Amino acid sequence: MAIQQALMVLGVVPPGYETYTASGPHSFVVPPGFTEVSVVSVGGGGGAQPTFGGSGGGLVWSDNVSVIPGEILDIHVGVGGTGGDTLGNNPQQGQTTYIRRQSNGEYIVKSYGGGGYSQSNRGGGGEFFAGNGRVLDGGDGYHQYAGGNVQTAQHSISGASFKTAPYAGSQTDPYAGGGTSLISGQTGSNGGASTGNTGSNGGQSGGGGGRAVSGGIGAKYGGNGANGGVSIAWGTPYLIGDGFPRIDGNYSTYFRGNQYDDYFDYTPGTSGVFQLGSGNFTIEFWHRTGNVDPNGNTGGGNAGKQRSFAVFIEGYKASPLVSQTWAIQADSTGQKMIWIEGGNVAFQTSLDTMTNAALNATVKWRHYAFVRNGNTIDYYVDGFKYDSYTTSLNDTQTDRIRIGNWTANTDYNIHGWMSNVRITKGVAVYTTPFDVWDNWNNPNQVALLPPLTEITGTSLLDFNTTSLNTAYWGPGNTTGTVSQTGGPTSSTESPYS
Prior knowledge:
This protein is mostly beta strands. It has helices at about 5-10, 355-360; strands at about 15-20, 25-30, 35-40, 60-65, 70-75, 95-100, 105-110, 125-130, 130-135, 145, 150, 230-235, 250-255, 265, 280-290, 310-320, 320-330, 335-340, 345-350, 365-375, 375-380, 385-390, 400-405, 415-425, 460, 480-485, 490. Mean pLDDT is about 80; it is low at about 240-245.
């Protein structure tokens, strides 16, 4: 008998939680006196091939889920996928974990299992249908695109507690499956790398199986994915995820450029949160250039380029005005990016990314990331690092951010779509190449990089909903204000559609 069910006999149930890690069905009875619960679920990890590691199950959590005392919640813990072998047996995908109401069959959360080799070893996703929650995609396994090169595990996190993990149940290295904790503050276990014929099993909960890496004669076997898991908590202090809202991310904001003064100013609610200091940071966004050349040159590959020196995003001091303590903007040709420090050009990128010729016939969206790691700023385009710059930036002045134009001149406005703009202070989010597109030349491609969410260090996240004058300000930060100028519009165009 579960702890809370035993205490229900006595009629008194203190705050607490129940955890379920055995695969298959379970039942949870809402304790007396409680009308809200918090839940977290992880899908089963994917099985591994002898030469390819498995992927992690998706994790979904939600706080403030309305319930009725005595209500029964049906739970199903997804089993991990079995590993494949060299005898012709393919690895299996991890199975779905879910929680639903027994009274009407209504789902509360679903966490999908990690993909096997036939699903390109992609981590599982998930959904929630009640409360305030978030979806964390499972980490990818070590995999190979059809006809392409081997890709090492992406989105990896080593046995992290889910509150601090950017991804759930992921692989920890090219050989071993990792796990994600079901209880905040605890750490998930890792599946160790195998050096023999059989890959190790994934760590609880939802870790992908490890691949076999060496040794032995005859058949080799990939490790099994770990089972998923569920935790249900009730009462203070057992809020599972701090109530951060889910962010859809499948939207963008359109800027008209040229003769139009479209831009946004952001003032944080927490003083100093926009000051990057001398530590690590990441400024990233998706952008799709429009079809009109604002410089008037519409011939050939020039169509679509930006206005000269168009400002995508800048940090500035508002009073007295010290423009551009840092900024990302187009160069004098409107074709390349430049990085600004202290109002001066610090470096110009080597890659033309903003003309139709550069984008080619199929690729329209590009993901840009400027990442400071130590004293180096690395410039990533679509997950590939193209340039690096040695920086001396020590930003102690920025108190506002502008997106779409320059604070000192209204003629430096951008055009096209921007999506999922995020500034992360104190964290170098990307330190190695990462997956953005599954197939660059696929005209129907959809981005692999998940929509951006609030993570540790986030100080601004926007252009990912239908609302133009609100933003996400990061965990623990006070809500700030957004001021709109001109006529930018919300759009359903996005890298994910």
